[in-house]
Amino acid sequence: MPHKRAKRSVREQKRKESGSDIAPGLKKAIENEDIPKSVSRVLNAAKVRQEWAEKKRKGFEDDGAGPSRKRRKQSGTGDGDTAGAKQTQLRIMPGESMAHFNRRVEESMRHTVKEAMQSSSARMRQVRKEELAASEKEKKKRAAEAEERTKGRKRIRAGDELDSDDDPSPRKAKAKEAGPKDFEKISTSAPKRLNDIVQAPPNIKQLPRKAKKLAAQGGSQKDAGGQSLSDGVRSMAQKAMLEEERERAIRLYREMKKGRAAG
């Protein structure tokens, strides 16, 4: 059967016919052997350097005096050949690891990602500036409206004061007359403040404890040249005179206060 080895005699005969010192076949060439990638990089180092030098020289010849990478990328964006070359470059190469391919893809996309980030940040800054400008404008508008309202209130108050000074209405005159006066008597039903109660003069409603004893002794003291309790009691004429004097003092005080307010 074809999958079985030939006989030993047949193999030895073929070996004698072919000889012992012969070149290896194409299948056994070193280029087709499975070798590590690090060894293949060392063996192909000269070829890689030569290809890189030719590529660099070609770029210098196309762009003149050696442009930068950014300029070369911009000049090649509108060219269909370079776009096709980029598409072919983004394919994984034979013998290339995934890590190296990912680095190459990131390198090719870095410029696009950077431009997108810059445009996005610029747009965000512009939107933020517009929002700040709108908020400042709104604040100024509110401040102007508040100031206008305050000025309107002041003008209304000034007009009311002028009207009241020039031609006071009977209602306002009545309100002024009905207002509180100095030394006005307060009714007992009205609530009193604590300060009014504290500063009020003392009101003696009951006689002291020894008043009766002193009244009993009043006759003997009067005979001896002393004074009785009835001596300190005012007469009705004295009370009327004191009331008239009080009213006159109040009237003079009010006139003096009115003159100061007018001056």
From TrEMBL:
Biased composition (Basic and acidic residues): 9-19, 103-114, 127-150, 175-185
Domain of life: Eukaryota
Disordered: annotated span: 1-36, 51-242
GO-annotated cellular components: nucleus
Protein name stated in the entry: Uncharacterized protein
Lineage start: Eukaryota, Fungi, Dikarya, Basidiomycota, Agaricomycotina
